[in-house]
Design goal:
Elements lengths: L2 H29 L7 H29 L5 H20 L11 H4 L3 H63 L9 H39 L11 H4 L1
Length: 237
C-alpha cells in the first residue's frame, strides 16, 4: 500500500459528491410535479431533507479534519528501515572502543594516549546506546505510526464505501412523491455512521501518534550516553 491508497480515498470522496448530486437531481425531478393533495408530504420531506443536508455538512467538516492526518506511512517505513540498519553496524563498532582491542598502547604513547584511552569506555557506551537507546526505540515507534496510518486509510475507505451504499439505497427509495419521506432518514443514518467511523479512526491514529511521541521524548531526554564528554574533543570540534 502506497500513495495510491490516498488516491483511492480521494476518488471515494468524489464518488460521494457524485452520488449525493444524483440523489438531489432525482429528488428535484420528483418535486417538479406534485399531485394535488400531497403538499403535506412535500412539507414533511423538506424538513427531513434539510436535516439530511445538515448531516452531510457535518460529514464534510469531518473530512477536512481527517485530511490533515493523511500523512505518508511509506516515508515512515523508509525512515524506520534506515534507523534499523544504522543500529547494528554502529553497535559493532563499540568493541573497538575497548582498550584491550585498541592499538593505542602500541602505536601511541604519552599523556595524550592515556587520556584518550580513558575516554574509550564512555565512547563504547555511547556507540552501544545508538542501537540500545536510539535505533531500537525510534525504528519501532516510526513503524507503529506507519501501521496506524495504514489502518487509518483502511478504516476511512470502509466508512466512505458504506456511506456511498447508503446514499445509493436512498436514491433507490426516491421513486415517487410518497416514497420521498423515507429518503432523508436513510441518508442521515448512512452519514452519521460514517462520521462515527471517521471519528474513531482519527482517535485511534492520534493514540498511536501519541504513543510514538512519548518514545521520541524519552529518547530525547536520555542524552547521557551521547554527551560531548563521551567523545575526544577532536571529534566533537
Amino acid at each position: 500500500m502506497g500513495p495510491e491508497a490516498v488516491d483511492r480515498i480521494m476518488d471515494l470522496l468524489d464518488e460521494v459528491d457524485e452520488k449525493v448530486q444524483a440523489l438531489t437531481d432525482k429528488v428535484n425531478d420528483i418535486l417538479s410535479w406534485v399531485p394535488w393533495g400531497l403538499g403535506w408530504v412535500v412539507d414533511k420531506f423538506k424538513d427531513l431533507w434539510a436535516a439530511a443536508m445538515d448531516k452531510l455538512g457535518e460529514f464534510w467538516d469531518k473530512v477536512k479534519e481527517f485530511i490533515s492526518y493523511i500523512g505518508a506511512p511509506w516515508d515512515l517505513d523508509s525512515a524506520k528501515q534506515e534507523w534499523i540498519e544504522l543500529g547494528s553496524p554502529v553497535a559493532a563498532r563499540a568493541t573497538e572502543a575497548d582498550r584491550s582491542q585498541s592499538a593505542v598502547d602500541t602505536e601511541w604513547k604519552g599523556q595524550a594516549a592515556d587520556r584518550y584511552a580513558m575516554s574509550l569506555g564512555a565512547q563504547g557506551k555511547a556507540l552501544t546506546a545508538v542501537q540500545g537507546k536510539l535505533s531500537s526505540v525510534i525504528g519501532p515507534a516510526l513503524g507503529s505510526v506507519s501501521t496506524a496510518l495504514y489502518i487509518f486509510y483502511g478504516a476511512v475507505a470502509v466508512a466512505i464505501v458504506a456511506m456511498i451504499v447508503g446514499i445509493v439505497t436512498a436514491t433507490g427509495e426516491a421513486v415517487s412523491i410518497l416514497g420521498l419521506p423515507a429518503v432523508p432518514p436513510t441518508v442521515i443514518v448512512a452519514v452519521a455512521t460514517a462520521i462515527l467511523a471517521l471519528g474513531t479512526a482519527v482517535m485511534n491514529l492520534r493514540g498511536a501518534a501519541s504513543g510514538a511521541n512519548t518514545e521520541f521524548l524519552k529518547v530525547a531526554n536520555e542524552t547521557g550516553d551521547f554527551g560531548t564528554d563521551n567523545w575526544p574533543r577532536a571529534v566533537v570540534g
